[in-house]
Amino acid sequence: MQIFINEQKIKVKENTTAFDIKNQFKKNADIIILNGFIIKNNITLKENDRLTLIKKGEIPSKKELENLMLARHTPGVHKKVKNAIVGIAGLGGLGSNVAVSLARIGVGNLLLVDFDIVEPSNLNRQAYFISHIGMPKTDALKDLISKINPFINVKTKNIYLNENNIENTFYNCQIIVEAFDKPKSKATLINTVLKNMPDKIIVAASGVAGYFSNNTIITKKIRKNFYLIGDGISEAKPGCGLMAPRVSIAANHQANTVLRIIMGEKDV
């Protein structure tokens, strides 16, 4: 019978259990993950089961680290997300948090696009640290992602996007995340993609300001290649700012929508 131990294929006898494998290959393992789920009780293994053995606090090799990270995925997910190419337009509260979530799930290729630098007022909702202040957001976010998941292929473009460069910038991306603050920039990107890039899918957001109800932020499928996240109402203005909780809820709606698209899900 064939199984995978820390993503390495081996053959074992029928009726082999998870604890048998632990005792044979890593007796000091504190965590046993079977097909993406931590188990506490012994379980008899089946053909093509994936078992991961982890010792808490142990620093793995680079290859082992990648295997341990993908072990938490449902089987079959990692190959698809690793091959995906996603572009993110705008690296503020939405874009920086979308990028972090996509990196954590192992999306293999990210294109990060912004022209701005990190400044102190960004820290109330964006993924950056104090040490990133003054850095271009593209460089700061690439640095951050390298500390989260060093196996992501991250490319950056430090440019201001407009109708003249959008197509060339994202020509190689399968999915484009719209993460701008300004309504005009949002409209320009969305309209350009829908009009001139019908083979791309765009995941946009609008209405994420304030501290209104969590449940008013929803995901809508506007057309086959256009998804829109937010409440559609709560714009940032004096007396209604942008803050981490609600912005992050919307950003992770966007990230999960990207994941669902990669996995072939049709609906929201």
Automatic annotation (TrEMBL):
The terms under GO molecular function for this entry are: nucleotidyltransferase activity; tRNA threonylcarbamoyladenosine dehydratase; ubiquitin-like modifier activating enzyme activity
Keyword terms? Nucleotidyltransferase, Transferase
Q: Which InterPro entries match?
A: ThiF/MoeB/HesA, ThiF_fam2, ThiF_NAD_FAD-bd, ThiS-like_dom, Ubiquitin-activating_enz
Annotated THIF-type NAD/FAD binding fold domain ranges read 67-266
Outline the extent of the ThiS-like ubiquitin domain: 1-57
CDD domains (alphabetical): E1_ThiF_like
Q: Name one GO biological process term.
A: cyclic threonylcarbamoyladenosine biosynthetic process
User: At the top level of its lineage, which domain of life is listed?
Assistant: Bacteria
Q: What is this protein called?
A: Sulfur carrier protein ThiS adenylyltransferase
